[in-house]
Task: inverse folding
């Protein structure tokens, strides 16, 4: 704790002693990862042509198993500006115990690797910080530098403007949303329900809404903040369908964040109760063969409030909740097809209204889920430049003897020649959180702030976007052509930095 | 019949009498439609500034209802190079009866519209030909010119090299397939089953396979030609999964054409028998409440061969077959989620093999369906230029007094300045087909020709692409930059024109 922020200034390049640096990708793919490697490689070569870069394979487990590839210019050049992490792979092993840290130290010592660059999200950078502390306390002499990666956009704070990959992924999703909006507006007969990747925060849904102006965009954080029920949400969507239908618009587009279900308080309660119930009655429940009787078995045993929610769900979803369980027997929330759940429930609500003479429009819906389509796209110019700079900066931090820092590039709302490179002590980005009964320092996941300027901008426009048809069609990412097309940043970043 | 092919040559522009020309979009959207309008508009203006272009609204029904918009330069300019048909909308009304033709004539006479441009697929152009014949025979003096549109790529023949929209749609799908392949190759834990729009032909799947080199791509026409059973197909996919798994590749990508089910002979038979059975036993069947008993009811009454196929299907698919019926009570084949059907059946086949000790890999799958994502994309440079040329050419054909022609631009494999504009008599593109008991001339839908060069190219490479990981990641459509990036055509077109 207590180390200062570092700013890199242009200066003379000093020749340094030859070093070996290791790097890993940790967690889900994000566009631009290979450019972090390219920036690292080029900076290391510029510092001393005898420097070596090792890519540990398959994520953190590569450090534990000493599985690596030497990254030479042929390999790095072949991957510049490409998407994915396939040059060395990634993985989800968590590096967090002292035993693992000791193993990493042992492997690095043997390979003479004396600096590690960890490219990951909030958890991976938290663990990178712990690893750096361990090495410092035990006088091991290995430096650790992090890089902020995640398409979800939930690794940002006072010091980090944005994680890499968010720009590209939201542009790919916005391209597709725009294309579907154009289709909706041409065919004028479908509502499209589009689920977007990102379970823990709704930054992606918010950014895509700002880029494309859909008729509806749900923001999980708002749903939680308002303590909305599932019926509230269904009613809100059905009202929008009715309102547009009355103007002759029997079509529309609704964006749904992947994590929505887990932010609805009553659904969270239902899932918890189902987990307990299924665990306590496993044998009896498993003996029931017919789906209808399985549903009745659970419904009878749930508390009255949760039974009410459970009974309101479509049969397919009830079956999904019962069938798709993880190895611990828990309901797999991520498998719930929220977009289809909402379509069926909105359909039902509209039929109720129709019976009462309160709706006489048409409602026909299509569902989509975009995730893998954007996670490994080739990086936008922004992400390509940002990642290269993050990698280059990481090498400079290492050369300057820093450890426990995260590579930082700021001023990202300006053109790349005005960006400011430096390093932020990882501890400065952390807060104490209670985990497993004790306070531990972690990088807090940044959820959508309902008081923020990007959310306020969305709120200021959403009624207009809902009632009228103000779709924007951003088109595909461009690498060539005018700067206002090829080099624009996300609207979230622009609005945050203006406001 | 018997009119000649027309070739347009550069020449002096003669000022012509002022005319009013009408246009319609017919059927599903395809990228570039607005540029057909732009080309038409510009040519009409160049021929005589007093010419007027009327856009009939909502497709063929606009001609019947006399619903139209005058397309002026402000409206046309706002839609140049944009996707979709939202400038005037489209529709699926079929113009085919003499009563409809008479109504169109009456409406056009009143508006003084004396030429109509029909932008549509095989059926719409067939009907455009009939309309032209009707106008000729009844001496009505209204010209009709068609334009070849459909993303499916099944409107092509000796005279028409390709329909517009196929280029853009396959590029959007290939971008997404490439991104998913990169993800598959980075995460190395999923098989992705990707269904692609296009029920009647597999040109889209074939073109995307040529662009992206997936591990598997099913071609419906081959399935039908080989008389493959569903079990054959499942076995073929499961074998590929096992083969790759033995090399340590527990991941892959498989492309599935939307219409596959209807090309599997035994599935076609099952669906026909189900339709008869449900019609004959409607009351009795509807009285059964429980899904399991409904399934048993049908299974007992099917013939032994079809019952065998039915019994092999996963429960969800059986339910889909029973539940999703059209207003005539028929099974809705298009609603069947073929990609999920195949995943469940491949999973089951692999488990059988595992029990016999014949498989010990992992199989985890994700499903995708791409259709709306590409149908309304902004046109690629190729489609933008091609469509503009089709529209411009249509206006020239009208000025030259032609009727019953389809606008033709050939030499599309070369650069745009070498393209050859002209007109093909629609009758020349037609064949006699037996419909409703009599021989009628129609434009035959072009299926994938198993003797063609593009299919042969695919067959020559598919084993390699299956066994190894030879993914290609085409990236998003580019509008600026080097010609080899921004102006390339589809591989289908290139290979066809070379061969």
Result:
């Amino acid at each position: 704790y207590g180390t200062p922020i570092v700013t890199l200034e242009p200066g003379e390049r000093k020749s340094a002693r030859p070093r070996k640096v290791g790097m890993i990708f940790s967690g889900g793919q994000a566009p631009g990862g290979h450019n972090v490697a390219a920036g690292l490689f080029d900076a290391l070569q510029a510092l001393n042509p005898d420097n070596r870069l090792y890519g540990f394979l398959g994520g953190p487990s590569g450090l534990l198993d000493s599985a690596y590839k030497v990254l030479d210019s042929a390999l790095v050049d072949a991957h510049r500006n490409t998407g994915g992490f396939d040059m060395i792979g990634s993985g989800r092993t968590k590096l967090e115990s002292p035993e693992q840290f000791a193993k990493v130290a042992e492997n690095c010592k043997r390979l003479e690797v004396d600096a590690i660059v960890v490219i990951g999200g909030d958890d991976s950078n938290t663990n990178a910080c712990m690893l750096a502390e361990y090495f410092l306390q035990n006088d091991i002499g290995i430096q650790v530098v992090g890089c902020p990666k995640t398409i979800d956009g939930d690794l940002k704070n006072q010091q980090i403007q944005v994680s890499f990959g968010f720009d590209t992924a939201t542009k790919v999703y916005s391209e597709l949303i725009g294309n579907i909006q154009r289709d909706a507006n041409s065919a004028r007969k479908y509502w499209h329900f589009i689920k977007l990747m990102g379970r823990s925060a709704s930054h992606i849904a918010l950014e895509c809404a700002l880029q494309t102006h859909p008729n509806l965009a749900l923001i999980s954080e708002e749903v939680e903040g308002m303590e909305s029920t599932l019926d509230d949400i269904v009613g809100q969507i059905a009202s929008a369908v009715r309102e547009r239908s009355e103007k002759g618009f029997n079509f529309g587009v609704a964006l749904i964040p992947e994590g929505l279900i887990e932010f609805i308080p009553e659904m969270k309660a239902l899932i918890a109760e189902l987990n307990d119930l299924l665990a306590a009655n496993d044998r009896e429940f498993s003996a029931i063969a017919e789906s209808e009787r399985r549903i009745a078995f659970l419904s009878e045993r749930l508390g009255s409030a949760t039974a009410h929610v459970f009974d309101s769900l479509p049969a397919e979803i009830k079956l999904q909740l019962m069938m798709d369980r993880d190895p611990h027997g828990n309901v797999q929330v991520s498998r719930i097809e929220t977009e289809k759940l909402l379509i069926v429930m909105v359909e039902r609500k509209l039929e109720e209204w129709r019976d009462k003479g309160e709706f006489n429009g048409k409602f026909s819906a299509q569902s989509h889920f975009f995730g893998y389509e954007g996670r490994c796209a080739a990086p936008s110019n922004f992400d390509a430049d940002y990642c290269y700079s993050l990698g280059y900066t990481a090498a400079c931090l290492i050369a300057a003897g820093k450890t426990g820092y995260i590579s930082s590039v700021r001023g990202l709302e300006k053109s790349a020649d005005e960006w400011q490179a430096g390093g932020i002590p990882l501890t400065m980005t952390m807060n104490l959180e209670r985990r497993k009964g004790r306070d531990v320092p972690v990088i807090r996941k940044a959820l959508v702030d309902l008081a923020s300027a990007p959310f306020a901008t969305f709120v200021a426009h959403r009624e207009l976007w809902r009632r009228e048809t103000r779709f924007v069609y951003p088109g595909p990412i461009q690498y060539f052509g005018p700067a206002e097309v090829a080099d624009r940043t996300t609207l979230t970043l622009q609005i945050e930095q203006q406001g």
Observations:
- Chain B touches chain A through 45 residues (CB under 8 Å).
